[in-house]
Fold this protein.
Amino acid sequence: MTIASATQLICFLVLASTLVLGSIGVVLLPNIVYSAFLLGGVFLSVAGLYLLLNASFVAAAQVLVYVGAVNVLILFAIMLVNKKEDLSAIPGLAVRKILSGLVCAGLFALLVRVAFTTPWALPGPVPVGEEATIRIGEHLFSDYLLPFELASVLLLMAMIGAIVLARRDVFSTDVITGEPADQGLIEKSRTPLLLEKPALEKTP
């Protein structure tokens, strides 16, 4: 084994372990902010795997689109909403966990079976080189135009949903229960700063 192949193997093991552990943390951590940051780490690990496959353009797009746009949008949505409410007990939570675990285990078994039974072509196809970006652009705006536009519409819907969730319309009474609302959330009217009297000025 040469130094280059050993380095590539070590990088793959580090990125793969980071990807797996980060994905588990995204699902299992109770703090949604930590989950969002771990999701950014997962996206970066995927970009590193693309670099190992000599797909530099896809790795750059992964960082720009997913880390720089999608993950930042998720963080902004979490921080802007920030609604404090007591979580009620979910009926049948244990059964839901068992069913979710079975579904995840089935998907994992299916992926492992595909990985070990597929006759992978080794070595892979010849790298295109500097024309890779041109080829990707041609396929993106011809063969895969519809999925590309659908992805942009989904991102727009996610941004609109984050804005709607972040809005806080505070009324004097709760529209559901009829109880008085928290008036501390309502902005108090005040005199503009330039028209206020200095604090040290004494009134006669």
